[in-house]
Write a structure and sequence with these properties.
By secondary structure, the chain is of the alpha/beta class. It is built from 15 helices and 15 strands. The strands form 4 sheets. A 6-stranded parallel beta sheet has the order 5-4-1-13-14-15, with helices on both faces. The protein binds SN-glycerol-3-phosphate and magnesium ion (MG).
């Protein structure tokens, strides 16, 4: 029997190299199972899932998302892992606050499938590209979760979260004593003192995730931005300011949408422009920027290669004919997919920001469905993949 298996595997050109490279007998069952799952041709389409309002509301799954994702794996597989992935997909969210590796673990638990860090594209993921520019400079990272750790893991060497930064300036927040929830000790005081932020200029500010304490953050950011990065000092040139997204609102657990990073940006900008001579300068990342979709396309190709590495090695990888963006926010997800153009197809769900009956008037999607489960069902039928 084993000889027969080996004969079949050797006759399959895509697995030949692996066997010739010296596959151990113990690895054969796994190898054979991957060969059984994989079709001769990889799919010519892929999917990008928005998270908030499509797959999750708060921490809870919505719209039948676990079932929808399971349909993207081979039924015969024991687990929903990359080796059993039938349809390449990524998560394309404007959210964040934790490193992609950690978010992949959280999503795997919440959605019941094995997700690779590669499949997680967050609003702040493109900040990685700025490491060369600010690698050793003092930068401040703002937002919920662990914005400092996110930036350190990207390679920024001299980063402080706004919590740690603010704690180095006594009385910078006159309302601190009334904030019963705040910790009196900085989370990483040692690091804060080592970098001596009171004498070093902040070279750039990154809004990594939704800011938590708007009053303190607006105050401290106005201080940093107006003084060229040295709160309490004279007015100087504004250091660069980057936002991970510009979402005015997003869908969480509460029935009506919640204010997002774009709302915080408007609040900060309105105040800054009122108290400062020059207008606030900033750059926003995230959807709907078309470059986010271009990057997602490249990542989807990498996911396809990981899932179908046997086919890729024989040089048969083709560009995608269609990429589906499933989102809940017309001005962000649908607008972004439209701007990105071919091969993007937009699908709008009614589980989040959009709750209309027909299509959206200003940013009509190619298809409107009730849930992500319906969207995946449509895609698999259209692509003749079941
Ligand atoms: O804070 C999260 C929010 O701005 C959007 O998340 O997954 O809907 O792009 P998402
Ligand atoms: Mg959303």
């Amino acid at each position: 029997m084993m000889r027969l298996l080996l004969q079949i595997l050797r006759n399959n050109s895509s697995l030949k190299s692996e066997l010739n490279g010296g596959t151990k007998a113990s690895a054969l069952p796994k190898l054979f199972s991957r060969w059984l799952h994989a079709p001769t041709q990889p799919p010519s389409f892929g999917i990008a899932f928005d998270i908030d309002g499509v797959l999750l509301r708060g921490e809870t799954s919505t719209g039948g998302s676990p079932q929808a994702l399971r349909r993207l794996y081979y039924h015969s597989a024991n687990s929903c892992s990359i080796s059993a992935l039938k349809v390449p997909y990524v998560f394309l969210t404007n959210g964040g606050g934790v490193p992609e590796s950690e978010r992949a673990k959280e999503l795997s638990k919440q959605l019941g499938v094995d997700i690779l860090p590669l499949q997680v594209i967050q609003g702040h993921t493109p900040f990685r590209e700025l490491v060369k520019r600010y690698e050793d400079d003092l930068i401040v990272a703002v937002g919920k979760g662990e914005p400092g750790r996110v930036m350190s893991e990207y390679g920024f060497k001299n980063v402080l979260s706004i919590d740690d930064y603010a704690s180095c300036f006594p009385n910078i927040d006159p309302l601190a004593q009334y904030k019963k929830w705040t910790k009196m000790q900085p989370t990483d005081r040692e690091m804060a003192l080592r970098t001596d932020p009171c004498s070093q200029r902040v070279q750039a500010v990154f809004i990594v995730s939704d800011p938590v304490d708007w009053s303190r953050d607006i105050q401290v950011l106005c201080d940093i931005l107006r003084t060229g990065g040295l709160p309490g000092q004279e007015i100087a040139h504004q250091p660069p300011l980057f936002f991970a997204n510009d979402d005015i609102a997003y869908q969480a657990l509460f029935p009506a949408e919640r204010l997002g990073m774009g709302a915080f940006r408007i609040a900060l900008e309105s105040i800054f422009n009122r108290i400062h001579t020059n207008n606030m300068e900033y750059t926003s990342y995230g959807k709907p920027n078309p470059f986010v979709f271009k990057n997602a396309e490249n990542v989807l190709l990498q996911v396809l290669q990981s899932a179908y590495n046997n086919i890729q090695s024989s040089g048969e990888m083709q560009p995608f004919k269609r990429l589906y963006m499933i989102g809940d926010n017309p001005s962000v997800d649908i607008n972004g997919a439209k701007q990105a153009g071919h091969p993007w197809v937009s699908i709008l769900t009614r589980t989040g920001v959009f709750k209309g009956i027909g299509n959206h008037a200003d940013y009509p999607a190619d298809l409107v469905v009730n849930s992500v489960e319906e969207a995946v069902d449509y895609i698999l039928r259209k692509e003749h993949t079941s």
